Amino acid sequence: xxxxxxxxxxxxxxxxxxxxxxxxxxxxxxxxxxxxxxxxxxxxxxxxxxxxxxxxxxxxxxxxxxxxxxxxxxxxxxxxxxxxxxxxxxxxxxxxxxxxxxxxxxxxxxxxxxxxxxxxxxxxxxxxxxxxxxxxxxxxxxxxxxxxxxxxxxxxxxxxxxxxxxxxxxxxxxxxxxxxxxxxxxxxxxxxxxxxxxxxxxxxxxxxxxxxxxxxxxxxxxxxxxxxxxxxxxxxxxxxxxxxxxxxxxxxxxxxxxxxxxxxxxxxxxxxxxxxxxxxxxxxxxxxxxxxxxxxxxxxxxxxxxxxxxxxxxxxxxxxxxxxxx
Length: 326
Fold this sequence. Notes:
Elements: H1 3-13, E1 16-20, H2 28-43, E2 48-52, H3 58-64, E3 69-72, H4 83-91, H5 100-107, H6 109-118, E4 126-130, H7 131-137, H8 139-150, E5 154-158, E6 168-170, H9 176-184, E7 189-194, E8 199-206, E9 213-214, E10 218-222, H10 229-233, E11 238-241, H11 248-264, E12 270-277, E13 283-289, H12 299-306, H13 311-325
Parallel strand pairs: 1-2, 1-3
Antiparallel strand pairs: 4-7, 5-6, 5-7, 8-9, 8-10, 8-12, 10-11, 12-13
Helix pairs in contact: 2-13, 7-8
């Protein structure tokens, strides 16, 4: 089928989409912004769009007046851990994005890292420890062992989650305890890993029916040196370069890692993989997101624009593809 034929079918077949945005995670506001962006883009293409949060009315809405397609833009728990996708499967409603089992795998950072390491991709050395073990084994002794094993600097973050909530760089041994306290405010287990220095990249992957394709890599340069929540979602706090200011060979290698992650994790439609290019040019995998941010400061829309993809048409293609899956 030609691109023109696919476009014609999209116009003819798709007219009612439900965008799920909000949720109860700390990433609620980001999700609301992403949902607003998707809804407005689809409405400009004369598609009827409803926006709903995840609440006690959701199942009734899906059962009594099912949309043709659900476009979930829920970030964090329930949105990316597969729970809501499982509900959509039970309701028999087509949706954009990865299936529940793939979401669960990608959302659990240590499991995703182990899978990519098995594929020959470099990942940071690290350890994943629950909050309880620091109490049971003695925090001071355990902190000493972490530092002895991993060295400095370190990076601490929840083993599940996104938007850099609870994520803290650790430059000296005295900062590790505070970083763990911050981490445990957002999750029960901490991923403590070596902090890889280098150029931070976000590589988005898009599949609108012809197989996954890596979009142009986005280079991320936060003004404070750390790509935290404020740097991600406050205009002007981070400088982005798309395409990234790297040689073609390095960008190709980064794109291949993102495609490997997308395939190995069993994802579909769209994803975003976060990477570091170390000073020797080696690509280091950090994590893959199954519901990348779609806000004005998010890297997925930037990459799509750099690839010459109009955001509204892209959203419609993804929704139409989900509709055809049935």
